[in-house]
């Protein structure tokens, strides 16, 4: 557990204000030598180190971390990621402001207005933006959806998700596959990469090109997609869906088309949202280690603010399949 200034105050028998004055060497405040020594000795005994937020405040910056999101839909996975990052940073005295990039307002206007101590991006920043923030003394931490040339960037390999879906379906004897793509254009950055993984794994295994169909989150759209897949010259027997929501639509569409899942059509989603296990049949899905990803991002921010901290180790178990009855 992290040692705080309150712990130092209790150990030394003085107020937290006095501890703050001593540890921050606040000018213009008279502290007796005996008290100063008692506080420093208590801090040393307890292994106290100032928080990243305290250092940010002393440098003239706020304790605010600006988290910049592209124009994505905000669903259960992103909600969970932001919640974990916010909680982790709050334990170190840092607050998180989430900004979704919509419209044409330049990013520079935002960070100059709120003067954050760090900016966290869930996709890489434009080079000019990153340089401007760094020159202003703002710590910049980024992540990427797939391979990125910058070693400090956290990569979330979306193509691996598509490969895992195909690997799971093929292991169950399926060779004619379809991909259920989302209808929301804001998800194209994820969907294109996951589909690329599906295509690459099908090609590697010598399977036909997957049949790609956009599926709205309606029974009518999903049923039409299912009928199209089944009426093909080589009927589709398994579907890799963009995410669990699209997969749940496919399950409903299969039922409307008179098919039995998984006997006639197997379905696998992505994300393991809570309703996935309540579906009929329960949905097989690719689980993402959102908590580990969030901890890595939060620790990256803290390490960037405090050079004495070790950079975090990237989590290696980022994805795996949770098999349920739909496959």
TrEMBL record:
The keyword Transcription regulation applies. PROSITE patterns: HTH_LACI_2. Pfam families: LacI (PF00356), Peripla_BP_3 (PF13377). One of its GO terms (molecular function) is DNA-binding transcription factor activity. PANTHER family: LACI-RELATED TRANSCRIPTIONAL REPRESSOR, LACTOSE OPERON REPRESSOR. SMART domains: HTH_LACI. Coiled coil: none annotated. This is LacI family transcriptional regulator. It comes from Cellulomonas gelida. The lineage of its organism: Bacteria, Bacillati, Actinomycetota, Actinomycetes, Micrococcales. InterPro entries: HTH_LacI (IPR000843), LacI/GalR-like_sensor (IPR046335), Lambda_DNA-bd_dom_sf (IPR010982), Peripla_BP_I (IPR028082). Residues 3-59 form the HTH lacI-type domain. Keywords: DNA-binding, Transcription, Transcription regulation.
């Amino acid at each position: 557990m992290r040692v705080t200034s309150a712990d130092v105050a209790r150990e030394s028998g003085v107020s937290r204000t006095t501890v703050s004055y001593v540890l921050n060497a606040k000018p213009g405040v008279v502290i007796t030598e005996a008290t100063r020594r008692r506080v420093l000795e208590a801090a040393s005994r307890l292994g106290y180190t100032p928080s990243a937020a305290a250092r940010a405040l002393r440098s003239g910056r706020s304790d605010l971390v600006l988290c910049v999101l592209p124009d994505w839909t905000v669903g259960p996975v992103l909600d969970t990621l932001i919640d974990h990052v916010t909680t982790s940073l709050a334990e170190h005295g840092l607050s998180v402001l989430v900004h979704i990039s919509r419209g044409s307002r330049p990013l520079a206007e935002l960070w100059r207005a709120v003067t954050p101590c760090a900016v966290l991006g869930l996709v890489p920043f434009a080079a000019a933006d990153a340089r401007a923030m760094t020159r202003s003394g703002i710590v910049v931490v980024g992540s990427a959806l797939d391979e990125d040339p910058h070693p400090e960037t956290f990569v979330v390999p979306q193509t691996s998700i598509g490969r895992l879906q195909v690997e799971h379906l093929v292991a169950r004897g399926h060779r004619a596959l379809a991909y259920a793509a989302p209808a929301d254009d804001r998800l194209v950055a994820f969907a294109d990469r996951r589909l690329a993984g599906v295509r690459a794994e099908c090609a590697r295994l010598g399977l036909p090109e997957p049949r790609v169909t956009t599926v709205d989150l309606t029974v009518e759209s999903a049923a039409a997609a299912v009928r199209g897949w089944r009426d093909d010259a080589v009927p589709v027997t398994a579907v890799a869906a963009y995410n669990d929501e699209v997969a749940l639509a496919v399950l409903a569409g299969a039922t409307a088309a008179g098919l039995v899942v998984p006997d006639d059509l197997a379905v696998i989603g992505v994300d393991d949202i809570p309703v996935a296990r309540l579906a009929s049949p329960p949905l097989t899905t690719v689980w993402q280690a959102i908590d580990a990803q969030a901890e890595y991002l939060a620790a990256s921010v803290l390490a960037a603010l405090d050079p004495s901290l070790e950079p975090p180790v990237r989590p290696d178990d980022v994805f795996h399949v949770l098999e349920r009855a739909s496959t």
